[in-house]
Design goal:
By secondary structure, the protein is α+β, with helices and mostly antiparallel strands. It is 17% helix and 22% strand. The protein has two helices and three strands. The chain has helices at residues 8-14, 45-49, and strands spanning 27-32, 38-43, 65-67. Strands 2-1-3 form a three-stranded antiparallel beta sheet, with no helix packed on it. Strand 1 and strand 2 form a beta hairpin.
Length: 69
């Protein structure tokens, strides 16, 4: 069951993790801004799992898209 309090790390884990060539330092979350346009939010997986820049691990909101290049 997916709850409303998922974070970016939770979503990555639920999706099965990364494939071989995923750019774990270049992930971003697309979220609609107040003006209706999507705004990217950077997420560096390697930093977050080391305890650095934990503020990047935002809670996922409806209509968010997580992009792992």
């Amino acid at each position: 069951m997916i709850t409303n309090s998922l974070t970016v790390l939770d979503a990555i884990a639920i999706s099965g993790g990364f494939r071989d060539f995923a750019k774990q330092k270049a992930i971003y979350v697309l979220r609609q801004n107040a003006d209706g346009n999507p705004g990217p939010s950077a997420f560096n997986y390697k930093e977050v799992v080391k305890g650095k820049n934990a503020e990047q691990n935002v809670k996922i909101q409806p209509k968010d898209t997580i992009v792992v290049p």
